[in-house]
Amino acid sequence: MALMYHSMDAVDETPSFQAKSFFDSAPVLKDADSISNKITQFIHQNSLPGSEGPRRVVCVTSGGTTVPLEQRCVRYIDNFSSGHRGATSTEYFLKSGYSVIFLYRRGTFQPYCRSLPDDPLLECFKLTNDSSIQVVESHAEAVKSAISGHHDAVSRGYLLKLPFITIFEYLQILRLIATSMKILGPNAMFYLAAAVSDFYVPWESMAVHKIQSASGPLDMRLAQAPKMLSVLRKEWAPTAFCVSFKLETDTGILLEKAATALKKYKMHVVVANELSTRKEVVILVTESGKVSVHRENDQSDVESPLIKLLVEKHSTYIMDVNA
Ligand code: 9Z3
């Protein structure tokens, strides 16, 4: 079987034109109004002057996007990301006084739940003789800190969690968040740790039903995903502080690719990481140079010094913009 998906012939097209075509042809986002209301309300609440003044807000993206191959999707292409980076970073941002919009791939790691076992419900709880539920002693600390950390952040209005699965959902929700965060000016930060598909099947050229195997091998050409980082910087939230990630498996090209992304998309910081060492070391690439950030020991998180450094850079940025 040969399924040819035409590329978008994008040679002369600007990122904003490509973005428009992408959104115009994307499937309608389910619950768009409710998502939009949640975002608007969250940003409104966090921009009110409280005792500490209006809070800084960061949008943390986390997990990989899928590319469906069929409209009634049975098969899809996936991008690797466990969501550990995003979930861990969210905790450190909250600790640093930020409010966080956590845009995450459904089913990936969640803030405050990293120390729980794989099947928390079945492994952390047991039935007692009188059929009430009790926490298993060995997991009691992890359960307590997960519940209290999460409850504290959500009930105080500091954490909003929004799930996505496909690249269509991810980019549509990211646009809603970014255009709403525009009013925060330099107090807004984007921390784009999600692993986003570079290629996708445009909705209108996608098979509706399950692709059949009877006609032999499948031949397909994927379109290039629009470069949304440019659009985010130029149109959606032009004064926000933007941090993107660059993932490679070949260390020989990592720093050069990160430096190219920094320039091309006008990021304030690109965090370069290599797949197998991503939990131990990351390299911050900025206009003023490169800095390696290491975790302190096997038990600590590289996100602790990473977020500390980014918060400092964000503070300098806010001062410069307001000067
Ligand atoms: C990253 O590089 C993240 O640090 C990881 C985190 C996905 C490696 P985990 O979720 O891993 O903790 O398991 N994210 C960005 C990956 C990406 O797709 N970047 C694009 C690129 O490299 C730019 S948006 O071209």
TrEMBL record:
Domain of life of the source: Eukaryota
Protein name (database record): Uncharacterized protein
Protein species of origin: Smallanthus sonchifolius
